[in-house]
Design brief:
- By secondary structure, the protein is of the alpha/beta class.
- The chain has a single domain, classed as Nucleotidyltransferase, domain 5 (2-Layer Sandwich), CATH 3.30.420.
- The protein is built from five helices and five strands, in the order E-E-E-H-E-H-E-H-H-H.
- Strands 3-2-1-4-5 form a five-stranded mixed sheet.
- Helix 3 crosses helix 4.
- The N and C termini lie far apart (48 Å).
Amino acid sequence: MSTIFCGIDWAEGHHDIALVDQNGTQVAKLRISDDSAGFQALTALLAQHGDTAEAQIPVAIETPRGLLVACLRATGRQIYAINPLAAARYRDRGSVSRAKSDAADARVLANILRTDRHAHRPLPADSEAGQAVAALARAHQDAV
């Protein structure tokens, strides 16, 4: 079975997902909603491409926070928060076109893991107390 990498372009109401193999070939793409149904669609897509508890597909996303990231972290997988400026530089490196699309950005993020995973650090594991504080901080920010 080939190695798969996942890139997620995060947006307010939806997220674009791209899966690429070790050769850089896109093997799947999907747009999901920012809710439990979207997360279930994402985990089903990952499972279709070999994701298991023992061999989880790593994920690159441009933000270290939010509901989707919290759900992904709860699965114990490696999540790489890629700085949006760095992702933009990778996008420029891979295309002469300045056109931006969410689906293409998801593919760029997946390819960052494929080619330069060693240059990025996964998000550290969170304690339960840390997760609770982060959830409260998000709720406070949303309320304000």
